[in-house]
# Entry
Amino acid sequence: MNIKLNESNMNKDFRLTEIPLKNNLKIHVYDNCLPFPVFKRMQEILLGLNFPWYYNEGALYNKETKYNPVAPPIHSHKDDLDVFQFTHLFFRERAFAWSPYKEVILPILNVLEPRAWIRVKANLGPREPKPLVGGWHYDSSYDKNKPYDDTITGTLHMNTNNGYTLLETGDKIKSVENRLVLFPCNILHTGITQTDTKVRVLLTFNFFNKRKTK
# Structure
């Protein structure tokens, strides 16, 4: 998987860690991704009083993992009372319009510069008394069973907490502020809620890669 970012818009001291996956694919983790003042401005707005968040019950995915038998089943919810989040949809494929708040996240959009966007969204998850698992899923797919070809899933973490993203490979990506994570869309993954901060906020991206995945 060849990912080419516009490094001129990144922090000059960013750190890249590559985690190998199957079929010569990799998880790319960029710490200190954006210049510090730029990131802090985004963080202040997204975690501030005036940014619009919308209630969303769609935080729980299929608990029985019918998508892929390789990934273990999900068992963490006794009921759906604790399953919710708040979201802000910046862009969705076929919507043909961006949120009026696009300018807030332009710094990271200008880093990614993909061939085409599929979806750009912000998630805000409340604190839970114990870690809860969202459920295995692909972020974008034709029929919930097969992801788009040559597409990338990305997250930019807006605050540090003990929540994380778990991949079907067993790799855990911790929530660390200003950390950008990119991996192929055909890797099942799930979010794990935090217990040590009021909210867990991250931007999520799905886009067509600039180059063909080999």
Notes: Residues 7-208 form a domain with the Jelly Rolls fold (CATH 2.60.120.620).
